[in-house]
Design goal:
The protein is an alpha+beta fold. It is about 45% helix and about 25% strand.
């Protein structure tokens, strides 16, 4: 009886180990890549230029992440260590630069 329980435990551990290896290949959540930068300018008054520049910088960052690391890493909402630098260059023009680490989605591909 003890032998059967031991065999069942070993078989169960083998299934868990093989499942974990297979899951690791597809479950990339929490996997982050090195820092990327996105930059853009926007025009507008009363903060509208900054808002437009921020949105365009996010799009620029997502495009850079997809080009370098693939679609699984291209969602800014999952980025880690996000840092912003936005400044007015002229009266109605704002420039924003975002720096962040792209992190993967749960399932890639």
């Amino acid at each position: 009886m003890t032998f059967k329980i031991g065999v069942a435990i070993l078989v169960g551990l083998g299934v868990v180990a093989s499942t974990t290896a297979a899951d690791a290949r597809w479950n990339r959540r929490g996997e982050c890549r090195p820092v990327l930068e996105g930059a853009a300018t926007g025009k507008g008054v009363f903060g509208l230029g900054s808002a437009r520049a921020r949105e365009a910088a996010i799009s620029n960052w997502e495009e850079a992440a997809e080009n370098r690391y693939g679609r699984a890493f291209s969602n800014f909402d999952r980025a880690a260590g996000v840092r912003w630098d936005c400044a007015k260059n002229a009266l109605i023009t704002a420039k924003c630069v975002v720096v962040a680490r792209p992190c993967a989605a749960r399932i890639s591909g």
